[in-house]
Amino acid sequence: MFQDVTSTFAIKLYSLMDIVNFLPYPLNIWDKRIITEDFTGNNNRSKNVDILLGYFILLWAALYLVYEKCLNSLLRRMRIPLTQRYRIIEAIWNCGFCFGSICYVMSMPNENLNFSSHGFNITHKELAIVLHKSFFFHRAGVAIICHSTWIRGLANLLFASFILNMLYQKWCVIENAFLFYRALDIILIDICRILLCTTQVSGKAGKVFAKILFSFHCLNWVYLYVFFVPKLMWPEKVNHMKVDLALWLWFVAECLDSIWLRLCGCGKTAHWLEICLFPPPSQEAIELANIQRRHINSLKKSVNTKSPKKKEFWQALLCAMVIKKKINRIRNAKETNSQCQSNLELISDANDTEIVEEIH
Question: Per the UniProt record, which residue ranges are transmembrane (predicted)?
Fold first, then answer.
C-alpha cells in the first residue's frame, strides 16, 4: 500500500515537472522557414503594430511617473528611508506587471481585437507581445538611464527586441510557459526585495520568508535558464546567424546578471541576502550617504557641546533663585526685627509716661 502511494506521488511529481505537459505540439518550435518569412504578409499591419508599440511605451512612461510620485509621497509619510523607498517602488511595479502578464497569458481568448477608429486589427496574442515588448523597452531605458545598470538594461533590451520578436513570429503553448516562468522568476525576487525593505514592519519572520522565496527563485532560475531555454527554445541547426547571435547575447546577459554569481561571491558574508538582491551602490549614493553621516555626527556633537552649557545655565539659575529666596528671608527677618524693636520702644515710652503721670 505504501509503495503504491509513493509510486503514484512520484509519477505525479515527475509529470508536474515535465515540460511536455505544456506542449500539445512537437518540441521543434523554431521553424527556420517561419523565422525568415513575413508572418503577416501585410506591411500595413506591421506598421500599425509598431505604432501601437510606440504608444504603449509612452503610456508606460507616463504611468510610471505618476505611480512613482504617488507611492513615493505615501512611503515618505510612513517615514521609510530614501533608498528603501525607491527599491519598494521598483519591486511593486515589476510585480504588478508580472501578475497581470500571468493572468492575461494564461487566460487568453482567441478572438481578434478591433480598433475601428484607428484601423487596428490584432489578436490577443499580438497584443500580449506588444505589451511585453513595450514594458521591457521601458524597463531597459530606466535601468540604463536612471540606475546605470547596463547588464540588466541590455538583457531587457535584447529580450524585447529579439526574443519577443521570435515569439511574435511563432506562437504556441511553450511561449506561454516561457513567459509564465519568467514572470514567476521576477515576482519571487521582487517579493524578497520588498520583504527586506520592510523589515521594520515584518521583523525576523519577514526575513525568514524572504530567504525561503529566494531559494525558490534560485531553483526556478536553474530550471528556466539551464533546462528550459537551452533545450526547448534553442534552434537545432545553426543556419541563421542573427537568431543565434541574439539568443547567445541575451542568454549571456541573463547569466551575468544572475543571482548565482553574486551568491558565489558573497556566500560567506553576514549580509549575503542583501548583497544578492540589491545592486551595489553607485558613487553618488556613497557620497550622499557620507554627507548624511557627517551631518548626523555634527548634530550629535552640537547637542553634546550644548548639553553642559545648558546644565551650567540651569545650575546658575537655581543658585540665583536660592540666593534670592535667602535674601528675601533675611530682609523679612530684618523687617520683623525692626518692627519688634519699634513696638518695644513705643511700649517703653508709653510705660514711662504712665509712671511720670502717677508720680505727679
Answer: 51-67, 88-107, 153-171, 177-196, 208-227
